[in-house]
Known about the structure:
single chain, alpha+beta, 5 helices, elongated
Amino acid sequence: MADLNEKAWIMALVGGILGIIAVFTPMSMYIGPGGFFGIFTFGVYIGVGGGVDFGVIDIQFVIIGSIISLLLIAFAIMLLITAIVGKKSSGKAIPILWIVSGVFLILIPTFSIIFSLIIAPFLIIDYWIGPALIIPYIAASLSIFSAIIKLRR
């Protein structure tokens, strides 16, 4: 049976993939008889019902949302790269980077929720919370858990 320590990089890799997927999923959405309405982290919305509607919520939301999205992608890519490198590495630097990525994958959607509640509270209150606000927490959990496994040996 393989040592769990040798497979920790797989959890970090999955966490990085999930972090990237989160950017391309809606942070807030509505699905009903009228169709689908999704609001994305980077400030655009898509509505599909009687037709397709696409637009920008607010310029503030686009600027801050784009920064949030870029940070999320950056830390997810860092997690991916360090997971691949961590497959062969036995040092403590890689797990520490996994912890740092995990912490930022927790902070980024938390900041996004707070920002949305301040700028446009209806995005969180009137709609369903979308996968973009949930997936980074799963990715962070995988990242931090894999770092703990790697560091415990």
